[in-house]
Amino acid sequence: ADAKYVRAMRLMSRFFASLPNFPVHQHQQAFTVKLKSRLPWFFLREQQLLLFFQDATHLTTKWRNRLLSSTAELRLGDQSISINHLYSILDNGNFTKLDHGLTKSDISPKDRQSFSSCVKLISVDLFKILKDNVDTQETLVYLQILKMIIIAYIDKKQQLLRVSTLFFMLPE
Question: Whole-model pTM?
Fold first, then answer.
């Protein structure tokens, strides 16, 4: 994100920043937000003038791009989550594109906003291949979370599934 916009959001939400000459929380149009104490990790001041949201498509591509990053080391427990697991499937002569539906461009970090690539990464066929290999279980879990994000925030076909997926992602 553009640093100017991030700074503006931080100042307006008072996220480790403040506007000393403009007390945002005292504005006449500010509203009150009451959060349950079971979400201590969620940052939201009680008095707010504005709320900031990230669009769901951006969230989805950001999740995919984290997997594609050459500098990020993703782990689940002591096991690695890696794009190399997907490259191995593409390079494996036992699988064709018909088996997994992927192309190298789908896992290429060049197109960082490719939502269609995100959809290909959550295919049932790819999940089956990952599930059958004991070394790729963590990458499978990472992609299953990507699927939950897409179902909860983007896929409008199954309303009840969207709601239950969204609540599954929140801690109890």
Answer: 0.72
